[in-house]
Amino acid sequence: MWDELRRFSTLPGQAQRLFLRAMVALPLIRESLRRRGFQATQASLQKRIGAPGAPTTDTQRIATTVRMVQAAARHGLGPASCLEESLTLWWLLARQGIASELRIGVRKDAGGIKAHAWVEREGAALNEPQARHAHYEAFETEFPLSVGEP
Q1: Surface-to-core class of residue 39, CB atoms within 10 Å of its CB (0-12 exposed, 13-18 middle, 19+ buried)
Q2: 137 bridge partner residues
Q3: CA-to-CA distance for 62 and 127, rounded, in angstroms?
Q4: Which of 80, 85, 88, 103 has the most CB atoms within 10 Å of its CB?
Q5: pLDDT higher than 50, residue 148
Q6: Domain ranges across the chain
Q7: How do the residues of the chain divide into helix, strand and coil, expressed in percent and rounded to 5?
């Protein structure tokens, strides 16, 4: 625990804030999905974007946001599902003025149908370093987060 706290204290302030926001958002999103479902959760996040920062393509900021959400998912209250993690990333990017799309795909395997969620920007998966999403057939509909719209 002390090593983790020491690592956190060495992060730049922006990374610390992103990590803490993700730590709070993940369980709230989990509970909202459980109680209200996907559409209501997505609509609620859309309303809570607030005044996003100026639109940016800052790859460092995007990478930091991805890393902090993944770290919060690993160290949070219970394991986060890919949908919870992706919704959190999607929302935090939008709050910074970074447009992205939430993608959901399915695949058939011996045990039935499996689903997976990830976030894309300009056609590239952000939270999928090993291209796990490539094994899923994405729905044609993207779930874009409208940056700067009510």
Answers
A1: exposed
A2: 106
A3: 10
A4: 88
A5: no
A6: 2-144
A7: 50, 15, 30
